[in-house]
Design a protein that fits this description.
By secondary structure, the chain is an all-alpha fold. The chain is built from two helices and no strands. It starts with 10 loop residues before the first helix and ends in a 7-residue tail after the last helix. Helices cover 66% and strands 0% of the residues. It has a domain at 33-63. It has helices at 11-27, 34-61. The model has no long low-confidence stretch (mean pLDDT 85).
């Protein structure tokens, strides 16, 4: 596994974050089912990828040097 990707494109990272949030919610008396957790992971991964694209576009537009 030599391919690299940004951390925010990793479903493992988002899955771990959702699991932590679900555990904290359960301590607060809320129950988040497995299906809802998977939906949250998919949504967060998509949002993070879109945000990464927007940041890349902003970086290119606001750059002070031209590309060759």
């Amino acid at each position: 596994m030599m391919d690299l990707k940004d951390w925010y494109r990793s479903k493992t990272v988002w899955g771990a974050l959702v699991a932590v949030i679900a555990s904290c919610a359960r301590l607060a008396g809320l129950e988040i089912g497995t299906e809802d957790q998977q939906l949250a992971i998919d949504a967060l991964t998509t949002i993070a990828a879109a945000a990464g694209g927007l940041i890349a576009i902003y970086g290119r537009v606001s750059a002070h040097k031209r590309l060759r």
